[in-house]
Amino acid sequence: MRNKPRWQKNFFCYLLQVLVPSVMEMAAVRRIKALRLAFLCLLFLVVYVNLAGPIWENLDLAMLISYKQQPRQNLSDAVHVLGRSEESYCGDPVTNFVFIKVHKTGSDSTAAIFLRFAYRHHMVMCYPRRQRGLRGFTLTFPSTEIYKSNCSRWNVLGDHYNFIVHHTVFNKTAMDGVMVPGTKYIGILREPQSHSRSVFFYHDRFRIFMKDEHANPLGEFLDTPEYYEYLIRRQGVLGARNFQAFVMGFPPHMLRTQDTEVMDKAIRQLNESYTFVIITEYYEESLVMLRRKFCWDMYDILHSAKKIHEQHDPRKSIPLTHAQLQNHHRINAIDYRMYDFFNMTFWENVREETGRGFW
Fold first, then answer.
1. What pLDDT, in 10s, does the model give residues 162-175?
2. From CA 156, how far away is CA 61, in angstroms rounded?
3. Rounded to an integer, what distance in angstroms lies between the CA atom of residue 182 and that of residue 167?
4. DSSP-based three-state secondary structure for 178
5. 6-45 pLDDT tens trace
6. Rounded to the nearest 5 degrees, what angle is found at the Cα of 168, between the Cα atoms of 232 and 276?
7. Could you give phi then psi for residue 103, rounded to 5 degrees?
């Protein structure tokens, strides 16, 4: 094989000596540029964290004040005609309120109504500072305490909260310290046996009864409720006793009392704290009464059901025996008594409104 001429060898050596260092230099330049860009980004982040926070907080507060000063949105003429028929005795709409969101009472559908109202009226919601997943529409539940620091951006908006709709236990003293003065309180209650069925077949704490060998899970639970309550409490969760009363603010240390005088006294005290309590079995009537008490428009209570509960498991509709019903009444005596009291109070209000064309 012929050897390449000397001049060709020298030429290729020359190219290698020139091009290889150039390529290496270009790579080094690119690395330097990348490091410089990373350093500038890090420097910007440090400056933003240390200086921009107070600026954004002041801007948030200025925007909030400006936003709340905007006039209320006008409704369409068609809806406004259906508005307040009681204009002669109704004043400005109530725009400061807390909704005590009791689980499995239709509270999700109700919360959707209130959220739309709050958005329309520029209300400032105490939104949970810590998220707990999609199923945790929760503020402080099951704690009975609540502070401004439980709310998101409390150090900026803490003096302006006028709306709570997330799950929390009613505690008027604590909530008055979070909310603006003059806040109203709305509760919701469901017939106790219907409520217990819904909670029992929905909540994870009753999974031990969902196995195939249990023909009537709720009935078996109610045969020996104290034993199963003990097993549930060992899991570190709430039991099934007087659950609605607990969320509505009944003193936790008295949830096992069977003294009707003690129950009635505590319920009457709670009644003084609530402006209105929705009765799930009379949901539409309750919304009409709420609209009148709070001087809202018809548009404010227009809604469709957020969730429709389907009875996929036939065991949910199995009737209970007389003994099982008695046990249910016994361990949920406060729930029954509280429901009867607020249901009676609701219909007394309806009778007072009948003269003003309630029906």
1. 999 999 999 999 99
2. 7
3. 21
4. coil
5. 555 555 565 555 555 555 666 666 777 777 777 777 666 6
6. 120
7. -60, 140
- 303/76 Cα distance (integer angstroms): 16
Both tokens of 230, joined, read: 């003990």
Beta carbons of 96 and 180 less than 8 angstroms apart: yes
Distance CA 345, CA 286 (A): 12
The whole-angstrom separation of Cα 23 and Cα 104 is 70
Whether pLDDT at 65 is above 60: no
pLDDT digits (tens, 9 = 90+) for 217-270: 888 889 988 887 777 776 555 566 899 999 999 999 999 999 999 999 999 999
Amino acid (1-letter code) at residue 217:
P
Structure tokens at 237: 């969760």
Instruction: Give the pair of three-digit tokens for residue 321.
Output: 């025996």
Q: Which residue has the tokens 């003193």?
A: 251
Preceding amide of 142 cis, omega within 30: yes
d(CA 314, CA 200): 14
Tokens 């309630």 belong to residue: 358
Cα–Cα dist 73/90, whole Å? 19
Could you give the maximum distance between any two Cα atoms of the chain, in Å? 120
**How many Cβ atoms sit within 10 Å of the Cβ of residue 267?**
20
Q: Which amino acid is at 226?
A: E
DSSP tag of 184: E
